[in-house]
Specification:
38% of the residues lie in helices and 17% in strands. The chain is of the alpha/beta class. The strands form 2 sheets. The chain has a 9-stranded mixed β-sheet with strand order 11-10-9-12-13-14-15-16-17, with helices on both faces. β10 (267-279) and β11 form a beta hairpin. It is elongated, with a radius of gyration of 24 Å. It starts with 9 loop residues before the first helix and ends in a 26-residue tail after the last helix. Mean pLDDT is 87; it is low at 223-235.
Length: 513
């Protein structure tokens, strides 16, 4: 039996060969690549390969982090052309290599058994060698001369058919394929067509994909009955997974996460790490979920509706942190926003020392962004964080240390709530640059009802990433959303009450109980 590659079975990979889209920014014409990829998927593209030969390492990393959530939300595999190290860095589903690129066996060794690896071939001998080296699929071409591959050897229809008969893995034809030239694939045994300009040079990528897909289904057999539908998640409604504890009062934790995701028009999924008995007056009891059960929740989600972004909140113990980290690593999860719930605003520790170490060693390295408050930043950075100078210093130090973006929240001020965002070079695409900081300044909202603000902010950021926004844009939009929720003036309970997550749906109404 062929092995699974992460979330993808061998049959999944074969199925998703039908309309294989290879990116090229040469024809953007004012559009963005994420927009074009989303349109291509909406029109029927079933596999995305990021191929940008003239982009820098950091540019490819930034593009990958924008495209992956779009692909994963739609249940579409995402691989990167040749750049094995980048594929590993960003957690792509795999890599596609040519005959003069990284060897298939080396790519497998670097990426592991969970990665999808495709190989370009032009002869039966190359095809058999690639399959023996562990390739999961083959790209065969150029079938028709094309300007994007001027050095490619032309492959005849007869040789294409011989290659398909010689191997057991899926084969996709590539090179000069458009709706009017797809007949070259007829009766060859291929599983699909790989296209570049036919999609990305089109005025309407979605319409172009629809036409290509319809013709391929007609030629290769299919239509919706024979060609399995994509997973239930779709590009129009990305899913956001919240991994956190339950707040019985509804103001924070999983409940705040669900409301935030719903308010952003997205689909909320949850993995509950603990149950709490609490209200606005305080926490009465906590019941921690077992690590095994937490992992089972995460696995169930990724097997069916893979999330485009993930928010992690309360992880109360080292075993829970280990279980969450193992599960997310197993699924090559991307766009992780970690709210490191360690220290209360009062300064009281909320998790044990061994859990802090587990957080630093296992979860933070998986995150794209962490969102500590000032006391938490102090614990992680190892020095006092008392003012804006300390706040910025801590953000930079943590971004340097962990290699992820860091948002140090400053909601402890009397008159303001200024946050600082530190972006590592991988987020700014500035080769050789140092960490860049940006301040997000806002006045402090005069309210005693601020329960769940940290949970809400991190979930809102994850929503922005799930929609394909950049990190800075996601953080700014999330902060604006949180300000609206605070300013709405919700007044529930006798203690520190919740904020109004649905404030945008009742802008002229204030609620008190």
């Amino acid at each position: 039996m062929a092995p699974r590659r992460g979330r993808w079975s061998a049959q999944d990979i074969r199925t998703h060969m039908r309309l294989y889209a290879v990116t090229d920014r040469a024809w953007l014409n004012g559009r963005t690549l994420p927009e074009l990829v989303a349109d291509a998927i909406a029109g029927g593209a079933t596999f995305i390969q990021l191929r940008e030969k003239h982009a820098t390492h950091d540019e490819i990393v930034a593009l990958a982090r924008e495209l992956m959530p779009i692909c994963h939300a739609a249940g579409v595999p995402f691989v990167i052309d040749d750049e094995v190290e980048i594929a590993r860095e960003v957690g792509a589903d795999g890599v596609h290599v040519g005959q003069s690129d990284t060897a298939c066996a080396d790519a497998r060794r670097l990426l592991g058994d969970g990665a999808i690896i495709g190989v370009s071939v032009q002869t039966v001998e190359e095809a058999r060698a690639a399959q023996a080296a562990g390739a999961d699929y083959l790209g065969v071409g150029a079938l028709i001369p094309t300007p994007t591959k001027p050095d490619a050897v032309d492959v005849t229809s007869e040789e294409l058919a011989r290659i398909c008969r010689a191997v057991d893995i899926p084969v996709v034809g590539i090179g000069g394929l458009r709706v009017e030239t797809l007949d070259v694939l007829a009766n060859s045994g291929v599983d699909g067509a790989a296209v570049v300009s036919a999609l990305f040079a089109a005025d309407d990528a979605q319409a172009a994909a629809r036409s290509l897909r319809a013709r391929l289904d007609e030629m290769l057999g299919g239509g919706e009955s024979a060609f399995p539908a994509l997973p239930p998640a779709c590009a129009a409604l990305p899913a956001v997974l919240a991994i956190a504890g339950s707040d019985s009062s509804g103001g924070a934790g999983i409940q705040a996460d669900i409301k935030t995701v719903a308010a952003h028009g997205l689909f909320a999924e949850t993995a509950v790490t603990a149950l709490t008995a609490q209200n606005t007056m305080g926490v009465r009891n906590v019941l921690e979920a077992t690590p095994t059960f937490i992992a089972e929740q995460i696995d169930a989600i990724f097997e069916d509706i893979p999330p485009a972004a993930i928010k992690i909140g309360m992880c109360p113990s080292a075993p829970v942190i280990e279980a969450v980290a193992d599960a997310l690593t197993r699924w090559s999860a991307a766009n992780i926003v970690l709210d490191p719930v360690m220290v209360a605003t009062s300064g009281a520790r909320l998790i044990a020392e061994d859990a802090v170490h587990a957080l630093e060693d296992r979860l933070i390295p998986l995150a794209r962004l962490i969102t500590p408050n000032m006391p938490e930043a102090e614990v992680l950075a190892g020095f006092e964080v008392r003012d804006e100078k300390d706040q910025e210093r801590a953000a930079v130090a943590l971004a340097d240390c962990f290699g992820c973006a860091v948002l140090v929240k400053g909601g402890h001020g009397v008159h303001d709530a200024n946050d600082v965002l530190a972006l590592p070079p991988t987020e700014t695409a500035d080769v050789g640059a140092s960490v860049r900081t940006t301040w997000l300044r806002s006045p402090r909202v005069d309210t005693e009802n601020a329960h769940g603000t940290g949970c809400t902010l991190s979930s809102a950021i994850a929503c922005g990433l799930a929609r394909g926004l950049g990190l800075e844009e996601s953080v700014a939009a999330a902060k604006s959303y949180l300000m609206g929720a605070l300013e709405a003036g919700l007044n529930l309970g006798a203690g520190s009450g919740p904020i109004d997550h649905m404030w945008a749906y009742r802008p002229h109404q204030k609620v008190s109980v």
